[in-house]
Amino acid sequence: MHNLSAIEIRDKFLNGELSALSICQTFLDRIAQHDKEVGAFLSVFTERAIAKAKELDAKRARGETLGKLAAIPVAIKDNIHVKGEITTCASKFLTNYKAPFDSTLTTLLESEDAIILGKTNLDEFAMGSSTENSGLQTTRNPWNLKCVPGGSSGGSAAAVAAKFCPIAFGSDTGGSVRLPAAFCGIAGFKPTYGRVSRFGLVAYGSSLDQIGTFAATAEDIGLIMEVIGRHCRHDATSLPGGPEKYLEVPHDIRGMKIGVPKEFLKTLAPEPKKVFDNALERLKQMGATLVDIDLNLLKYSIATYYILATAEASTNLARFDGIRYGQRSKRATNLHEVYNFSKEEGYGKEVKRRILLGTYVLSAGYQNAYYKKAQKVRTLIIESYKKAFKECDLIASPVSPFAAFEIGAIKDPIQMYLEDIYTIPINLAGLPAISIPDGFSHDGKPMGLQLIGPQKGDVKVISAATAFQKANPEFTAIPKTFKD
Amino acid sequence: MANIDKETIKNLTELCRIDCTEEEQISLLHDLQKILKYVDQLEEVDTEHVKPCNHILDANIDATREDFVGNIMPRDVFLSNAPSHTGGMIKVPPIMK
Amino acid sequence: MSIYDNWEAVIGLEIHAELNTKSKLFSSAPNRFGDEPNTNINEVCTGQPGSLPVLNKEAIKKAVQFGCAIDGNVAHFSKFDRKSYFYPDSPRNFQITQYDQPIILGGSVIAEINGEEKSFAVNRVHLEDDAGMLKHFSTFAGVDYNRAGVPLIEIVSEACMHTPEDAIAYASAIKAILQYTDVSDCNMEEGSLRVDANISVRLKGETGLRNKSEIKNMNSFSNMGLALHAEIKRQIHEYVNHPNKAMHEVVPQATYRFDPDLGSLVLMRKKEQADDYRYFPEPDLTPIILTDAYIQEIKDQLPELPLQRERRYVKELGLSTHNAFILTSDKKLADYFEEVLKKAPFAKTVCNWIIVEFAGRFKDSGSSLLQSGISALHLAKLINMIENGTINGKIAKTVADEMIKNPAKDPELIVKENPDFSPMNDVSEISALVDKVVLENPQSIVDFKAGRDKAFAFLVGQVMKLSRGKASPTIVNELLLKKIQE
């Protein structure tokens, strides 16, 4: 059962083949048995999930209408609120913080009868690309337990890869859904900026964040987007309208023009290049035409991103001061110490690093050179993409310059940042993009193909990804250890 | 371009209200120097006639709301997360007036 | 010639007015004063992680209404910025305000100084959210976030005032406009209107600006006057007493608060460096984009403004500029005035009774005619009794005192019930008194006939005394003159 897609599970529940309770119990048992090796979950809502499952079975028995996501078990990254449950953001600061309100994501999922199994691990406050910055626990890649699952939504990606649930949610600010999806051999989608509500997502980079969805298939993600991809009145950056139709559209890329930024991808190492070129071949075989496009400006993306994201983050995280919530330092004897000690004790190294950097680039005398400059380069990056999309329907690129690396292997922060070179530019431009598995490294670790659409081209992206997966089923695999 | 030193780091930690040990400050100085050197590459980009991107969405979306009172957070819910509270207020150490 | 004569003050005011919307600026929590702590809150105004601001469109409307009322330029495009600073009353440790692209630029108000109209320039008006409230105790401080997120407009004047009187006149004019446009409750005691002053001094004729002091916490216009006078004196003394010290060192930039109990300024902090607020555009909000049509509609729907009302009173009712300004500076007072006028159409008399007679009677108690419960109808009745001769001016004053003691009581009833209040109009009765006085004061008559007018007034006074103030002065004068000349 655990290898079924979300759509299949729901349909089997609706037609009576499976009970919600048995579905829920199956996945809870798998978590109980196997998560000690993976470490995907920070908290599991056993009672809550079972109660919901029983309720769904009763509803079905009474013949009531059931939601679009009925009985689908889902996991949520622990920087997204479920009211009454703890939201830690994987930080020591918030280990006792109970979410006082539901995120819009949670509200929508529950109203469509999904079953929330628990919260998953992440890099602290979503700052990182490997989940190693979690202040609470380590998550391992189900494909190779010595390796990282990618980050910052590593817990959610690992949970889906290990078949602990068919659907999981993460947040993507610079690649935090797409990268772990690629490392874990599953699909991971970041919507157009504003397509999914950020209300209840603990903010990191406000103009970059989006809630993303993990699943084995892009098709499952389409189902989810039909529920969550809509306007939210609690989020002023939310796009009007929605949700759009993702499932009933033709999944056909014949005649599609797929842009490839050859010059920008020049530095790709031989192994990922081989996998990527092979994926491009498959796209051609499916009837698409490849077009060379100029995205050379993207080489400045990482610098631009790290200025803008940290600037926004430095103010977004200012509120964690131990005054209204969170862990207040027990050593503090005056107000100054409440702030300074609470933050010192609560934050991990990467978070401190980014807050300091963000404060610096906004400070008097430096704002023009750094923050304002980065804002301008961002405009140019957006224009680059606009120009490219005049010549193609979608853009293809690898997700990462390499496959999952061993835990502890990358110590240099800059080296870690450089990992995001292919994912970051998409957040700067607010574009929709998906990572789907397109091959393996020589040592059996998954790699991902990234398909990028123009703003509001979410349906096109998911549709093309669905077509690719259906035409190339061998890439969508399950790690041996978690198959049964 | 910018030369940051120990003094800069010290001032920054004060601005952000994060206490850092001597060791941490040295390590952070080292990291920030590297990162700032890396981001200096933006100087190569000609942005003279470029407008800064303040909003990536179409600015013409009306994202305002009507003036009505919505859900209030009950006080006990608010205070249940508070490290210290008294008389319905959040409690902090005394502040010199 | 005092040392002050060579100096002038340069004053700018920053006025924060809370908008009287139903809900807060960026959250739908209630915008109310005086409730139990932390009962008017939600996730946005307590800075919960995951919360997002959403702009209240009524706040935009009120800001634009005010901007139009001061003839300011309403920006077609304005935006919000984050202003970072740490303080417990700030739920996010950054305020959402408008830094470089505010909603209103420029504008002016006309106030009254010594019976003349004077124009003061406004630099800008912008929207921002208020902080919570700190309550200080000896061993701790308590934070109440009810006020956090309340919409504010910050009204920044040009540094165009030169005396405390200028400042008070300007602030009164701003307050009146806020009140007339129903944009704010303007209640200084409740904090819905707050005034901060920036003040420096310089020698007359000097063109540059010297270091300024910032004064906060002036909770009434009269205290503001006191504070400004005190600071002007202090700064001048500093310069005069340190003629050889560099100017910028004599008066360092500093912030003071006015302590009403001490009646003087208390240093809060020295501003060695400017605070680095690290302003940058608020990414969670879209800019405010206003059309010409929207702005014009608001302009067209503006109510009668204080200046228009004041000029109407001068032109149509013949009031002096000074008195018209006093009446119209508080909308409720002017409304009351016009209510009285409906029944007692004697503009100058009504005006006098409101702003001189009754105002004088309430001065010490701190209350006012509006708060007293004396209805406009009753005041009209009092005035009508004077105008139609039922009572004379002297009696009227006593009746007024009675009305203050019993605000609900009809003055006609007061007069009826008290025989002393009924004027003596009976000529024969007065004649008898006149005869008596003339008989008893022969010397005064001699003095008067010798040309001393004061003697006549003395005689009139004696008659009034005998009549216990009830005799009609006109009749007394007439009869007395006649009797003396007999």
**Helix run count of chain B:** 3
**Most extensive chain interface and residues per partner:** A-B, 71 and 55 residues
Structural class of chain B: mainly alpha
Termini of chain C, distance in Å? 58 Å
Taking the sheet with the most strands of chain C, its summary is: 10 strands, mixed
Please state roughly what percent of the residues of chain B sit in beta strands, choosing from under 5%, 5-15%, 15-25%, 25-35%, 35-45% or over 45%: 5-15%
Percent helix among the residues of chain B? 25-40%
Form type of chain C: elongated
pLDDT under 50 segments of chain C (min length 5)? none
Report on this model:
The complex is a heterotrimer of chains A (484), B (97) and C (486). Helix content of chain A is 38%, strand content 12%. Chain A is α/β, with parallel strands linked by helices and 484 residues long. Chain A folds into 2 domains: 6-258 and 394-482, Amidase signature (AS) enzymes; 298-377, no CATH class. In chain A, α8 (270-285) links the parallel β7 and β8. The model of chain A has no long low-confidence stretch (mean pLDDT 95). Chain B is mostly helical and 97 residues long. Chain B has a two-stranded antiparallel sheet. The longest helix of chain B is centred in the first third of the chain and has 18 residues, at 22-39. Chain C is α+β, with helices and mostly antiparallel strands and 486 residues long. Chain C has helices at residues 57-69, 164-180, 221-241, 247-250, 292-300, 306-317, 321-328, 331-343, 347-362, 369-372, 376-387, 393-405, 411-417, 427-440, 442-449, 453-466, 473-484; strands at residues 7-18, 73-74, 77-78, 81-84, 94-97, 104-105, 108-113, 116-129, 133-136, 141-144, 151-157, 193-203, 213-218, 254-259, 264-270, 280-281, 288-289. The model of chain C has no long low-confidence stretch (mean pLDDT 90). Chains A and B meet through α9, α10, α11, α12 and α13 of A and α1, α2 and α3 of B.
